[in-house]
Structure formats: structure tokens, C-alpha cells
Amino acid sequence: MATWMTRSSLFERLVLGLIMLILAFIMLFPFWYVFSASLSSYQDIVSGKIILYPTGFNIAGYKYVLQESGVVRGLINSCILVTAGTAINMFFTVTMAYGLSRTNVPGMKVILWLVLLTLLIAPSLITKYLVVRELHLLDTLWALILPGAIAPFNLIVLRQFFMSIPGELIESAKLDGATDLRILWSIILPLSKASLAAITLFYAVAHWNNFFDATIFINNPALYPIAVVLRQIVLQGNLPQDASAVTEAPPPDLTVQMAVVVIATIPILLIYPFLQKYFTKGVLTGSIKG
Fold first, then answer.
1. Could you tell me the residue range of the domain that residue 32 belongs to?
2. Which cell locations does it reside in (predicted)?
3. Angle between the 86-101 and 152-164 helix axes, to the nearest 10 degrees?
4. pLDDT, tens digit, 9 for 90 and up, residues 49-100
């Protein structure tokens, strides 16, 4: 009987592993195909020879794209949005979440209900545009950072995690004369690394993929993030113009589009290996304590 149960359990693990491999292949194949196509010749792309590996190795698309100042500026703008925007997001989210997690804060319940109300009633696009215009933020990168400085969902998640930290630690620190800032910096934040990593990743990915707000609030092409540049090249077919002066024979449109997709995707993917351990732990901790 024990042997049969062992074989049955082994069979279930094998089936589960096979299903996970198939799902992983389905999710990774589109990106791998784009990456292979970006390194292949145009003839091999249109003829359908590319399946799992590049053929007719060719990096003309990358050379052509990197010679275009709009793509380089887009990458720089997106990096500024991710670094500065995420730092501002985390500062305001962490401080407000800590304040709302303390039960002795005057008006805490009213402020919390106002935060929850924003989850149910989101401002209209016209209202948001008018606010950004009146604050003189149009055609600036601040228009993509300040209006969404605090994401209500991330704020609620972080507040719940702060409330799960034993109150005895905070009380003992206060008896030793620690201020709220000292408690937040020396006790709360070190115990919240997993949740902070998960929230940071959410903010960073949102800033990197933000193109809708940029198309609404920014008219200066020099301030376009890489997501807007990618949209123009892939969907609208607006290929670089200044790069043609450097490259005598521009590569086909499809090769350039594949290269831009890879360039716009790889930087944000590099963040995951550094935060994967904390991100997984943060998600599991939130699901158990929630």
C-alpha cells in the first residue's frame, strides 16, 4: 500500500512538473521568438525559418536602432522615471502606510476611508488632465510621477503588513525613547524587506510600461519614455529618420521593430533576479497574514 501511494505521488509530481514546463514554454516562447527574430536575417523571418534559434545572424537592427537618438532618449527618460518615480512612490507610500497603521493617529479612520474611496471612484481623464495642467506639469516628467505618487492598493497592502508587526516591539522602542522615525527606520523597515521589495517591483514595472499618461501629458518627443517610442515604431511604423544618415542601407521595418521590442523589454527584466527572493517571500507572507 505504501509503495502504491509513493508511486502515485511520484506520478502526480511528474504530471504537475510537465504541465508547468508546458505553461512556461507557452509564456516564454513569444519573447524568445522576438529575440531570435531580432538577430536573424529578414529573409529567414518572412520565410518562417525561425522557430527556436536565430538563423542568418544579423545585428543590423540593433545598430540601426541604437543610432537613433529618440530610442536612446526614451531609454534615459524611462530610467529616470523608474529610479526617481519609484523612490518618490516608496517614500510617500511607506510613510503614509506607517501613519495609518498606528491606531493613535488623529483622524486615521477618516483618511483611511478616503484612501479606500479612491479605489472605488477613480478620477476621470479630464479631471486628471486639468489638475496636471493647473499644476504646470504638462510636458515634464513630473506629470508621470506626482499624480500617481501613492497607489491606493499598494498603500493598503503595506499598511496591513505594518499592522501585523507585533506592537510590543514598537512599545518597547518608545519606552527606550525612540521616535516614530527611528522606529520606522530601525524596526519596521528591516522587518518588511519582502513586502517592500514586492511593492517596489510593482511601482518600477508600472513606470517602465507607462505610455498612456505620456501620450496625454507630454507633447515633446524629447521627453517620451521608451514605451511611447516603442508604440510609435511597432504600431504606427514611425521608424527612425536620423539613423538613415549613418546607415547606408537601413534594415527592413520588421527587423527594426523586433530589435526595439527586445531593447525595451530586457532592462526591466534585469530587475527581477535581484528582487525575486524577496518578492516571492513578500507575496507568500501577504497571503498567509491576509
1. 27-58
2. Cell membrane
3. 50
4. 666 677 767 777 778 777 766 788 888 999 999 999 999 999 999 999 988 8
Residues 6+ apart with CB under 8 A from 151: 89, 93, 202, 203, 206
Helices (H), 39-124: 42-47, 60-66, 69-80, 86-101, 108-120
Is the CA virtual torsion 246, 251, 256, 257 positive or negative? positive
Same domain, 163 and 87: yes
255, 60 Cβ separation under 8 angstroms = yes
Of 9, 36, 58, which marks where a domain is finished?
Answer: 58
209 and 119 in a single domain? The answer is: yes
Q: Are 208 and 264 in contact (CB under 8 A)?
A: no
DSSP designation for 241 = S
Q: Which of 8, 42, 58 is the last residue of a domain?
A: 58
Q: CA-to-CA distance for 60 and 41, rounded, in angstroms?
A: 9
Task: Enumerate long-range contacts of 214-219, CB under 8 Å, 24 or more apart.
Answer: 214/144, 216/125, 216/129, 217/129, 217/132, 217/137, 217/138, 217/139, 217/143, 217/144, 218/138, 218/139, 218/140, 218/143, 218/144, 219/138, 219/139
Regarding whether 161 and 44 lie in a shared domain, the answer is no
Measured CA to CA, the distance from residue 207 to residue 203 in angstroms comes to 6
pLDDT for position 290 = 43
What is the C-alpha separation between 57 and 75, in angstroms, rounded?
Answer: 25
The answer to whether residue 278 is domain-embedded is yes
Question: Does one domain contain both 219 and 105?
Answer: yes
- CA 250/CA 242 separation, integer angstroms: 11
Tens of pLDDT, residues 176-204:
777 878 888 888 888 888 888 888 888 99
**pLDDT exceeds 90 at position 14:** no
Under DSSP, is residue 7 helix (H, G, I), strand (E, B) or coil? helix
My answer on whether 43 and 167 are in the same domain is: no
